[in-house]
Structures are given as structure tokens and as C-alpha cells.
What does this fold into?
Amino acid sequence: MGSTPPFAVPIDTALGASEPLGRLAARLRESQARLDTVRPCLAPPLRDLVRPGPLDDDGWALLVPHGAAAAKLRQQLPALVAALEAAGWPQRTLRVRIVTGG
It folds into this structure.
């Protein structure tokens, strides 16, 4: 059970070898970097609750675990958008999504 199957490929190798997976990895890194940019702007109780979400051509999502966090985060969206613009990130619609579980 402890041995690696012969067909297993390390994730970094797979991401680097596949153009679609490489693009996905780049979007994941950008999503995290965007969150790192806005995290100082978040209200302290939200900092540990907000997670980076999907980044696509239409926008970027921030994920929170419940409605109260989503409501507070939505109040802060103008400041977050301003922080992203000040840091030079390309403008994208910023969404808040509630993700429960996991």
C-alpha cells in the first residue's frame, strides 16, 4: 500500500506538462495572490474566513462559509476593488460566494 503506482505523476509535473492544467495552476496562483493583496483590507474577523475562489474571464470570487460573513464582505467590496486597482491587478468583477462544508 505504501508504494506509488507506476502511473502516478507528481502534480507539479502534470501541471507543467499540460497547457490546460498549466493555465489552471496560473489562475489558482493569481487568485491566491489577489487574496494576499486584499487581506489587509479585510475586517479582522473576516481574515481567517475568506478563501480565494475561482478566477475567470468574467471575474473573481471570494469564498466565505456563511451569510453573515458574505454580508460583511459585500460591504467591503469597494475598498477591496480599490486595493486591487492600486496594486495593478487587471480589473475584474469581484463576487462573493457562500461555500458551506468542506
